[in-house]
Amino acid sequence: MEWGMQNRLNQLMPGGKCFFMPIDHGYFQGPTHGLERPGETVAPLLPYVDALFCTRGALRGAIDPNNCKPIVLRVSGCTSMVAGELSDEELTTSIEEIVRVNASAVGVSVFIGSGHQRQTLKNLAEMVNDCEDFGIPVMAVTAVGRELEKRDARYLGLCCRIVAELGARVVKTYWCENFEKVVNGCPVPVIMAGGPKCETEKEVFEFVHDGMQKGAIGINLGRNVWQNPNSPVGVAKALQAIVHRNASVQEAMDIFEAEK
User: How far apart, in whole angstroms, are the C-alpha atoms of residue 214 and residue 192?
Assistant: First the structure.
């Protein structure tokens, strides 16, 4: 692996593990609860995460360039909750813009099995072609839109393998039962997405701990952190401990309770 690519991946994944904080929800949801002012939301959480996952608009308008973690730039979009079909995405950002904002990586959604499967896979392939020339890693996001029933090991394993074959350096996917089957069939690192907001902090810590034990190298969690009504900082500190220090679920709960 060339120096620039390896250097960026090392910055994003210190020690081979990572905690990414997504704040890209506004690109299809608008002013999501908790992200009305994204810069203020993430400021107290930055010490505990390794990178932010966001759009260029949020980056320019809300994130302080003088006090920031590495950026994973969302580069696919062109849809909304209003439109009904969330899989109808195209690329939104050029390689020149990616370099201009100094992104350490980019993220592209793919919708395997949807009516727009071909287009979203083509989006990924085109972005890989562009970014490899500049040593910028591409993270494929195995999105399912509103079809939550698709989140099983067979489907997610299929998705992860396909996007890895197209050149994604990292894959973001959902935790599921038998998660090790997903990881074992994917030749590149796998990161867990948060999915729907969990009912309790313990539920969050349990699925993250399980996924890490079964081979994930990290997490990309947003709503289950910054929408937490009790202590977003406590959740972030606890998740950092699970990811980077192999903390147990009980140890994570203790960290959270102490902060709360």
Answer: 11
Considering the candidates 17, 150, 172, 237, report the single residue annotated as catalytic. 172
3-state secondary structure of 108: strand
pTM for the model: 0.95
Separation of alpha carbons 1 and 6, rounded Å: 6
**Distance (Å) of CA 2 to CA 7, 50, 93:** 9, 22, 24
Integer Cα distance of 14 and 140 in angstroms: 20
83-105 pLDDT, tens digit per residue, is 778 899 999 999 999 999 999 99
Other CB atoms within 10 Å distance of the CB of residue 12 = 23
Domain spans of the chain, in order of start = 3-195
Q: Considering only the top CATH level, what class is 3-195? A: alpha beta
Q: Does the active-site annotation cover 69?
A: no
- Closest CA relative to residue 46, chosen from 20, 25, 27, 24: 20
* Contact indicator for 237, 259 with CB cutoff of 8 Å: yes
